[in-house]
Specification:
The N and C termini lie far apart (71 Å). The chain has one domain: 3-Layer(aba) Sandwich (Glutaredoxin). It has 147 residues and is α+β, with helices and mostly antiparallel strands. It contains five helices and five strands.
């Protein structure tokens, strides 16, 4: 009987871990509408560490020992280099736990997409999904041209 309970416990733990992993995977890299928390601070950080783009700014928060952060930085640099008016700014949170707390950054990389005025339009936890990010940048451009 104890062996049966052990098998049930292992299968249950595996099912729970698999479900949580699938949920995490589905959410990671998704472009989500950002809350307005810390907007002024985001714009000031982007300006202090680089500059705001004429069309959009990709403000990436990373840490020193984060391998996905380095890969994300390369991808965002490339994306910004291929699109006029897009700036990529990277901020290292290694010694800035206060900043991570204020902006509710729970994972790295975390990227905020700022419009030309420095307002947060989206937030991406994890490595961004390029198709979704490109669509967002296109929609920001379309709304800018229409205005």
């Amino acid at each position: 009987m104890n062996v049966l309970w052990a098998i049930v416990a292992v299968l249950g733990a595996t099912a729970i871990a698999t479900t949580l992993g699938l949920i995490w995977r589905a959410r990671t890299g998704r472009v989500r509408t950002a809350a307005s928390t810390g907007e002024r601070e985001l714009a000031e950080l982007a300006a202090a560490h680089g500059h705001l783009g004429d069309r959009a700014t990709l403000l990436q928060f990373s840490t020193e020992f984060c391998a996905p952060c380095r890969a994300t930085a390369r991808v965002l640099d490339d994306l910004a280099g291929r699109r006029d008016g897009i700036a990529h700014v990277e901020v290292d949170l290694t010694d800035r736990a206060d900043l991570a707390r204020r902006l509710n950054i729970l994972q790295t990389p975390t990227t905020f997409v700022l419009d030309p005025g420095g307002r947060s339009r989206a937030r991406i936890g994890g490595a961004p999904r390029l198709g979704e990010l490109a669509a967002l940048l296109d929609s920001l451009e379309a709304s800018r041209v229409a205005a």
